[in-house]
Amino acid sequence: MQFIIGGMKPNRITALDQFRGFAILTMVLANYMGEVNIVPVWLKHAPDIGLTVIDLIAPFFIFAIGLTFGMSFRHRKEREGAYKTYNQFFARYLAIIGLGAIASAFETAAGKNPSGIDWGVLQAIGMAGLITLAVIHLPSLYRWLIGAGILVIYQLILDKYMLGFTIQSPHGGLFGSLNWGAMLILGTALADLFHAEGRLKKAFPWASLSVMVAGIALAFIVPVSKHRVSSSYVLISLGASALLFIFFTWVAGRFNWKGRFLAVWGMNPLVLYFIHYFIIGIFYMPGLPAIFQAAQPWLVVLEMVILIGGVSLVAYWLDRRKIYISL
User: End-to-end distance of the chain based on CA atoms, in angstroms?
Assistant: First the structure.
């Protein structure tokens, strides 16, 4: 994690803040709606095989991290040397895993992990970061090949040996982290195109589209499933994330759109992630279905307003005091 207090975070990319803010906003809404009965199934995670819009949210975060991973690593290495840089990145992603374990422990205590396996999105992100750290120093071509190789090996092992265990584990569990890592590795390779100049930069949209098309083609052989972290899911969601980011960059550039609300949310995603759980807990802890799971439409709308409003207050408060804590 990176802590900056009392000054603007350097090298801000407005569209990236907006994209990251959109990711955390949709995750907040998804985590609330996932427990509410009246919310339609297409606004919840697919139970196994299938893909809903909600299944794309975690990949948004993975891709957002990939956009700055390589650039941040190289700049820090130039300033502080390889040893200190690797230590800092290693500690950052271990800390994310630890924070995820704390969040998952509370979820398990509340009965949200009936399988007893409490492996959350932060653990998946943290493990993906550690896996990517091992190869981030390599040229883009090698990372493309390594990411693709992991997808192939993972899918073969999953189908033959690990399917039952992986489906029971939130976000694919420890084994599923391999393919989350592949997603991040490929995301850093796509990011190299985005940060490049000339013809390489122009190839970024086409490469993003090609990744998604490859995933759609693979889906005829490998079922799309977030719970399995299947290789078709990885490619489709990664390509979709990149294309959505391209849309944000186009809107920001074409219309000079500042997207202040989303940008403020995107500057402190980790803090807001924990704050939203606290607010949802206020609705959940009384143990009365009528005020959460079985809430009436008017109450659902009211609680969503309270949830988004409360998280937004924290986001703007941190921004006014120039406090930034990022993944």
Answer: 5
Domain count, the chain: 1
Query: Cβ(195)–Cβ(74) under 8 Å?
Result: no
Model pLDDT for residues 74-116, shown as the tens digit of each residue: 999 999 999 999 999 999 999 999 988 887 777 666 666 655 5
CA distance 8 to 209: 34
List pLDDT tens digits, range 253-290: 888 888 899 999 999 998 999 899 899 988 887 778 88
Q: What pTM was estimated for this model as a whole?
A: 0.91
Contact status, residue 73 vs residue 136, Cβ threshold 8 Å? yes
224, 232 Cβ separation under 8 angstroms: yes
- C-alpha angle 110-174-267 in degrees, rounded to nearest 5: 70
Structural domain boundaries, residue 279: 2-326
**How far, in Å, are 7, 250, 305 from residue 207 at the CA level?**
36, 17, 38
Separation between Cα atoms, residue 83 and residue 158, nearest integer Å: 35
